[in-house]
């Protein structure tokens, strides 16, 4: 077990040394050897400006591996794509649709640019979280843009073909542009991930990146894929920049040679997912095992749950209230770590819950 150096890691360096960090979404595992090799080779070669449009070979690989068609624009990261899309497709004061709970930069991209969050909460059913299609239909008239996350962060839903087709039909009826963050697409478990763009190609901008699946968050890079008019509109609202040459080399190597590493990592993550699910059932917490991602969304009996667990268990989790209003009893737990770390964290969390 080799953990990142605390002074070089946001995840491990933010809290005191007695705190186990299961919060920010990166993995504790080393990156794939083909990626390390590609970085060494690139560092020993050319580190000058690349073409502004980026690596053409990487663009072709992205389309092939993601099963997408359309124009490709490189981004500084997926979050930049969210901000750019809100700026490109809406005006101050207008509403932007999204499902809550949701990855906090979705909400920040809307609010910080003086738009209004039109929150359509996921429905919590006996079988797990589901899209509220009736709620989406009611709200769609008030917006031109839907920010979508699939696989969903923080719940881990991998939406079904039926759900995606129904969402696409609503988007067409109401002339919605949909920006679909599919950053966690390679981290689906039992059910394969299907891109939303297969159901709504003419109105979808898909955001991709290597940061989650290949553990390259410290080499920020993303891509937007979609119809040329949408991609060009997005580009006009991004600061002019060059894609990072090391990040492009790493992403290309991951797509070309990283599949065996990714399969092994998915197996480790699935084992951790199942362990967290069993622990949550025994602890009486509300939880649906994620179908994708390495994030567990847990409903607890205590308000301000993340602050409680940090204080009482010395475990750092993401506060549920950051993912939308009304979720302060929830926490997001990142289980992309070694079993020894996870077991100690679960032991501490269980001990803290006994105090409630």
From TrEMBL:
Keywords, comma-separated and alphabetical: Aminotransferase, Lyase, Pyridoxal phosphate, Transferase
Enzyme class, broadest EC rank: lyase
InterPro entries, per the entry: Aminotransferase_I/II_large, Class-II_PLP-Dep_Aminotrans, PyrdxlP-dep_Trfase, PyrdxlP-dep_Trfase_major, PyrdxlP-dep_Trfase_small
CDD domains: AAT_like
Stated family: Belongs to the class-II pyridoxal-phosphate-dependent aminotransferase family. MalY/PatB cystathionine beta-lyase subfamily.
The keyword Lyase is assigned to this record: yes
Record PANTHER family: PROTEIN MALY
Every Aminotransferase class I/classII large domain range: 18-349
A molecular-function term among this protein's GO annotations: pyridoxal phosphate binding
The EC number(s) this enzyme carries: 4.4.1.13
Cofactor(s) the protein requires to work: pyridoxal 5'-phosphate
Organism: Thermus thermamylovorans
Protein's UniProt name: cysteine-S-conjugate beta-lyase
């Amino acid at each position: 077990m080799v953990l990142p150096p605390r002074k070089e890691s946001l995840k491990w360096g933010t809290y005191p040394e007695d705190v186990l960090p299961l919060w920010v979404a990166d993995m504790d595992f080393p990156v794939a050897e083909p990626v390390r090799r590609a970085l060494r080779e690139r560092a020993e070669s050319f580190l000058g400006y690349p073409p502004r449009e980026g690596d053409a070979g990487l663009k072709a690989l992205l389309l092939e591996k993601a099963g997408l068609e359309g124009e490709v624009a490189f981004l500084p990261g997926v979050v930049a794509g969210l901000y750019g899309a809100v700026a490109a497709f809406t005006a101050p004061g207008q509403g932007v649709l999204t499902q809550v709970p949701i990855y906090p930069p979705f909400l920040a991209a809307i609010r910080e640019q003086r738009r209004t969050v039109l929150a359509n909460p996921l429905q919590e059913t006996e079988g797990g979280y589901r899209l509220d299609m009736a709620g989406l239909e009611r709200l769609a008239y008030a917006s031109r843009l839907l920010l979508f996350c699939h696989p969903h962060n923080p719940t881990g839903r991998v939406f079904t073909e039926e759900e995606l087709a129904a969402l696409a039909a609503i988007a067409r009826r109401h002339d919605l542009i949909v920006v679909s963050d599919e950053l966690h697409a390679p981290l689906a478990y039992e059910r394969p991930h299907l891109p939303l763009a297969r159901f709504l190609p003419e109105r979808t901008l898909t955001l991709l990146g290597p940061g989650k699946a290949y553990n390259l968050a410290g080499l920020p890079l993303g891509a937007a894929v979609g119809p040329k008019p949408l991609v060009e509109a997005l580009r006009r609202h991004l600061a002019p920049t060059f894609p990072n040459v090391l990040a492009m080399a790493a992403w290309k190597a991951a797509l070309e040679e990283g599949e065996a590493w990714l399969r092994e990592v998915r197996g480790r993550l699935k084992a951790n997912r199942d362990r967290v699910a069993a622990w949550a059932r025994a602890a009486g917490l509300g939880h649906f095992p994620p179908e994708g991602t390495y994030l567990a969304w847990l409903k607890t009996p205590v308000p301000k749950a993340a602050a409680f667990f940090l204080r009482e268990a010395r475990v750092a989790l993401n506060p549920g209230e950051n993912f939308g209003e009304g979720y302060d009893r929830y926490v997001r737990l990142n289980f992309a770590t070694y079993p020894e770390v996870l077991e100690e964290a679960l032991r501490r969390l269980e001990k803290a819950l006994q105090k409630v």
